[in-house]
């Protein structure tokens, strides 16, 4: 009996690392700042048919409305209450999105802002997205309700109540992060309010949570809140399914708090991944793709089954957060596609694909003065819809990286090779590399400044394959280049350093 209980407990804990995706789906896409109605449509028309597993959505709860600067994207990281209305839509639209996405097997993961409320600057009379009253000056959030008793200020000993030194664990977790009112998560009352918010989302049908600013919360407090969560809605998930938990902890090394303090609670964002991969693909600091042979834990990353990985996120694509100038984004499209392609082909970690909006950048001394600009919107501040062009790309300044053929096809590649080992590595000692995934897929990169013409063992069955980077298989033919694997499993790859995309990938579902 005791043994049985132990197994049940272990099972419960392990479950939180599982994305709960439908079988055969492996990647999440962050539809940053999208409206709920657009996400619902995207699940049905694009994400489900192309094998995406889930969507990370922007925070759905009520937040402060900032008018100076005008409606920045980051206002959504300043909660006012846990009511479900935001620039992305109403509660009814939110429920409709969750239902429609779940019905096609694409699950919704909520960006949960539970470390803090809004910045200390918002006084009475400041606007909020559902019109709830609040006063940041007196710490009165009556729509929750929270009062001045529910914040951490008494436990912070810095001169201005702010985090001043990331080397001091107590500051990082008890003081204010960039002026945001820091909730007292050790209080039973506060834990209860947060758990009620998350449980409401679970009952609507969401499948898990990104925990924003997890580094700024004590692991024990997070653990307590997570243990109060109910299992997922049985309309879509097997009874007893636990919500997927992934925590935003920035750990590039050299600080007092490490990501490993959080890996017993759920998965954790591996920020070293994008920072390092950007450095390699940009060929900075003498890095070469050949060094990627032992990519993953071999590079000092957290254990594979704990990591959420990504090339860029909504912060570091615009200079917030961590990673700096090495981070690749859609602005560097050619290198970016290679980086995302590498990520999706490589077995390490749980992969998240970024989907962004464009904004007018304005660099002064290497600093983008427009890093605050919110999503494409009308003059009244309402977000513009995501329109779809005839060539399947998006309009209205939505970038839709997840719809770029190379990226969409690599998301499919990852599904096709799921569970297969990393195999048949080859490199030229420089920036031409190749590897396979068992006998199901193979990818080749030429990030050198010269032509590549190599014959490599792929591990794949003989036949003619469509390269899914330069094109794809359509109606029994290849729209891009064709690659022939001979009877010994070898294929010749000719990739010019001047190709639009200097890489190629084949998998068994793209065989003619
Ligand atoms: C806005 C205004 C502020 C204003 C505030 C309140 O910009 O001026 O005071 O409102 O009125 C987002 C925006 C913020 C925005 C906030 C609220 O990014 O600009 O503030 O909404 O509207 C830290 C946290 C991490 C956080 C990241 C941005 O640890 O959790 O900062 N990310 C999340 C979200 C993010 C959001 C929030 C949290 C808040 O993803 O969108 O903020 O909800 C070091 C530390 C990191 C730290 C960075 C940046 O990183 O390690 O923990 O991240 O500094 O402060 C090297 C190091 C690396 C270091 C990095 C930068 O790379 O290796 O470790 O340098 O120094």
TrEMBL record:
Keywords: Calcium, Carbohydrate metabolism, Chloride, Disulfide bond, Glycosidase, Hydrolase, Metal-binding, Signal. The keyword Calcium applies. Residues 423-511 form the Alpha-amylase C-terminal domain. GO terms for biological process: carbohydrate metabolic process. Residues 26-414 form the Glycosyl hydrolase family 13 catalytic domain. Its EC number is 3.2.1.1. Its cofactor is Ca(2+); chloride. Residues 1-15 form the signal peptide. GO terms for molecular function: alpha-amylase activity; metal ion binding. It catalyses: Endohydrolysis of (1->4)-alpha-D-glucosidic linkages in polysaccharides containing three or more (1->4)-alpha-linked D-glucose units. InterPro entries: A-amylase/branching_C, A-amylase_C, Alpha_amylase, GH, GH13_cat_dom, Glyco_hydro_b. It comes from the Eukaryota. It is an enzyme of class 3 (hydrolase). Belongs to the glycosyl hydrolase 13 family. PANTHER family: ALPHA-AMYLASE. This is Alpha-amylase. It comes from Pyxicephalus adspersus (African bullfrog). The lineage of its organism: Eukaryota, Metazoa, Chordata, Craniata, Vertebrata.
